Amino acid sequence: MKLNNNKPILYMSIWKTKPLSVLLGEASESEKGLKRTLSSRSLVALGVGAIIGAGLFSLTGIAAADHAGPAVTLSFILAAIGCAFAGLCYAEFASMIPVAGSAYTYSYATMGEFMAWIIGWDLVLEYALGAATVGVSWSRYLLELLAKFNIHLPPDLICSPWETLTLSNGTVIEGGIVNLPAIFIVSLLSLLLIKGTKESATLNNILVVVKVAVVVIFIVLGWKFIDTTNYTPYIPENTGVFGKFGWSGIAAGAGTVFFAFIGFDAVSTAAQEAKDPQKGMPIGILGSLIICTLLYVLFSHVMTGLVPYYKFAGDAKPAATAFAVTGYDFLQTGLIIAILAGYTSVMLVMLMGQSRVFYTMSKDGLLPPFFSEIHSKFRTPWKTNLFFLVFVSLFAGLVPVSDLGHMVSIGTLLAFVLVCIGVMVMRKKMPDAPRAFRTPWVPFVPIAGIVICFALMYSLPNESWARLVIWMALGILVYFIYGKKNSKLNNPG
To answer: What are phi and psi of 420, to 5 degrees?
Structure first.
């Protein structure tokens, strides 16, 4: 069926897929491609470096205080299981389509342009708001560090208008004007990205060693100060409200700390920089996930053993709060500095990943050329970086960390669901396409990933769903107003 202008009707054009041969051709264009320098070990380091950040050092306390209590360890395990199923699906795609763009690219090849747009728009919630979340937590740890040197910033400039902040000296701030330190770090990193600053594999490996060392030191030194009475009850009784402790609280806690696992999928955005993507992608994705899960469970066990879980309510720096119990004041200062350095690298990766996704979407015609314009001197998508400097700064400066964390989690979970669906679609449409890594037990694994990720989404607050619906509705509007009409795939020539 055709319209008068001889173009396909709406429902045909929006489901058009990008041929696998075209994607692989784009990856092989050496003059435009990225340099392949990352080994399997470097990819694991990249994944660990992107994963360990605000989710562990910040949201662990919130999940324990508001949802799971000491059983936040079980929340981490539940979240890890969901990530493992999604990770297996990511690994197949990453080994099969070693192209930058992550889930956006995979969706374009399997489910068509409209779903690719949805996932690309959804990735803003993961990368951009993820950077904002880390920025808020970064500011909290900065305040803790400055306080040790008796430096105190004006209360109105360290807190968003809709949150309550308790300082280390016990002062309670009931809403400020703006979180200026968070805006500062986001702006600084965005400007550095415009100039072309990037992490080398060696530098990233060093940062990963530092961050893992911080977690291990926290676990080892904190273990002997654990007060086992803090584990009683291990699973606090449900208050009568879904998600407020009990088993539903463990599920809700998993939805919250799920944020701590985002980053393993960022390995897939480096597919064009891997020496052997068919081998390295699965190792990088699954290896980083396994290492971080083990560290997370031990870390959260120690943290809730040092301080009663309810004392972490609204605390965006629970690791520092818990470690203070040990009396190692000089080590606590070192811990905070290392966390700040680690947070900085995570924000850099997220801001870079976000600009890369929008750059790819712009090159496909789904976003204005503005987002793919390259600076004549620095050779970076500088206008995209400037756009997200403003966008991310607004969220980092004005939105509470818990709300940001929930928005990031629900957006990431949706991305994982679509990747799991994509594997089943690809197995049906292209059963004979070469796959260096095959997701085992299909369709069980992708279906299990879909079920668990949807369950974690269900456990998140209703406000998160409302924000997701509003954000997606806005994205659909932008697609039909601009993206569909300017798509290079649907409008060749």
So the answer is: -60, -40
Q: Which amino acid is at 470?
A: I
pLDDT in the model for residue 71? 96
**Neighbouring-strand partners of residue 8:** 2
> 């030191």: which residue's tokens?
217
Residue 26 and residue 228 in contact, taking contact as beta carbons nearer than 8 Å:
no
CA 215 to chain centre: 19
Burial 3-13 (b: 16+ CB within 10 A, else e): eeeeeeeeeeb
Q: Dihedral angle at the C-alpha atoms of 109, 50, 60, 192, nearest 10 degrees? A: -110
Q: What are phi and psi of 378, to 5 degrees?
A: -85, -15
Of 215, 223, 202, 23, the closest CA to residue 110 belongs to 23
Ramachandran area for residue 11 (φ above 0: left; ψ -120 to 50: alpha; else beta): alpha
pLDDT along the chain (493 residues), means of 10: 45 74 65 57 77 78 93 94 87 73 78 90 85 88 87 87 72 82 93 66 68 88 94 94 92 86 70 67 83 93 95 82 84 81 81 83 91 80 90 90 78 88 89 82 94 87 89 94 90 70
- Assess contact for 344 and 131: CB atoms under 8 A: no
On the CB side of 132, how many CA atoms lie within 13 Å of its CA? 31
Q: Which of left, alpha, beta for 240 (phi over 0: left; psi -120 to 50: alpha)?
A: left
Structural tokens at position 276? 């052997």
Measured CA to CA in angstroms, residue 383 lies from 48, 156, 195, 376, 488 at distances of: 29, 31, 12, 12, 21
pLDDT tens-digit map of 120-159: 898 888 788 888 988 988 998 898 889 888 888 888 888 8
* Exposure letters 89-127 (e unless 16+ CB within 10 A, then b): bbbbbbbbbbbbbbbbbbbbbbbbbbbbbbbbbbbbbbb
Q: Name the nearest CA neighbour of 374 among 390, 362, 392.
A: 362
Quick count: other Cβ atoms within 10 Å of Cβ 31? Answer: 4
Q: Exposure of 444 by Cβ count < 10 A (0-12 exposed, 13-18 middle, 19+ buried)?
A: exposed
Torsion over CA of 192, 195, 201 and 203, rounded to 10 degrees? -50
**3-state secondary structure string across 199-234:** CCHHHHHHHHHHHHHHHHHHHHHHHCCCCHHHHCCC
